[in-house]
Amino acid sequence: MEFLPFTRPDIDDETIAAVADVLRSGWLTTGPKCRELEAALSLRAGGRPVRLANSATAALEMALRIAGIQSGDEVITTSLSWVATSNVILAVGATPVFVDIDPTTRLIDLDLVDAVVTPRTRAIVPVDLAGFPVDRDRLYELAGRHRLRVIEDAAQSQGARWRGRELGSFGDLVAFSFHPNKNMTTGEGGCLVMNSEEEAGQFEKLRLQGVTRFADGTYDCDLLGGKANLTDIAAAIGLGQLRRLDQFNERRRELARQYFVRLAGLPLELPPSDFEHGNWHMFQVLLPAKLAEQRGELIRMMRERGIALGVHYPAIHRTSLYARQMSTLPHLPHTESVAARILTLPLFPAMHDSDIERVTATLTKVLGCLLSGKFDR
Hints:
The protein has two domains: 13-239, Type I PLP-dependent aspartate aminotransferase-like (Major domain) (Aspartate Aminotransferase, domain 2), CATH 3.40.640.10; 245-372, Aspartate Aminotransferase, domain 1 (Alpha-Beta Complex). By secondary structure, the protein is of the alpha/beta class. The chain starts with 12 loop residues before the first helix and ends in a 5-residue tail after the last helix. 44% of the residues are buried. The chain contains eleven helices and 13 strands. The chain is 38% helix and 14% strand. The strands form four sheets. A seven-stranded mixed beta sheet has the order 1-9-8-5-4-2-3, with helices on both faces. Strands 6-7 form a two-stranded antiparallel sheet. Helix 1 (13-25) runs antiparallel to helix 7 (232-263) and helix 3 (56-66) packs across helix 6.
């Protein structure tokens, strides 16, 4: 039987043809296709400035720099995320301050934020794990009260909404990812939604060596930037993906609904059934605590049966880099419990209904083997 990955991008023939046109044009790096994609993304963001980068990681780091975050500052975030979320905080010289998650939503627990705010706190980086938005009303009330910049790690929530408004169309600085496992892709890439053309101009400098070009062919460099621009090849893919984003997200919702039906009754904690706000980037379940140490065995057994599962994510504060940096590990019991038990099931638009049946039937069998102690290899 064909191997089923936990995710796979869906690139149509029209997009492949568009990439071929870019290759024939001779203009491969940042050019007209990037400007076209930025304009299309800005339209979805209610006209706010949007600029592309070669990754959401780069977009997040540049967002921190635009917000003025620097050495000595503290930035509040969650430990249940891809390490890039906190690595970029270290990259600008600031200190990540980890807050525990709500065990039901698996998102940063905003009720715990007040207690960790200090005079050095300058920003908060919430993460929309699996494409489910952090409560934007409470987030911005809290940020306003403490005068914090908000850098939304919306890497996984392209097309998600909060109370009817698409993410990116409001708020402060909002970063999206276009990695191949995201709801839309550019191959690799990301973008940042900003508040003003002034911020967008600063982003443009930061993504290309701090350079401002002039009409006479000369340039000036007035700040230290890097190399994070996107190519027109990637933008051509992104334009084709953006055209289908709503279709992709609707199919994800349909598949998620089937998971809820077929997983009912299994000894698993299912995600919140939020079909109003989330984009269903991932469908994540939690194993019972007694099977946490056997998660690797479960993944192996599923893979032997032709189905890939993912772990998103190990707790960041428990990785070697962060353990070395901290004199005392933060007390994050819900984060550690969820990180030890979480599993990502296959979910992508090109999946068939029969794939959901196959995943759930196989998972039921494997769970039965593990719970009974009878390993069917």
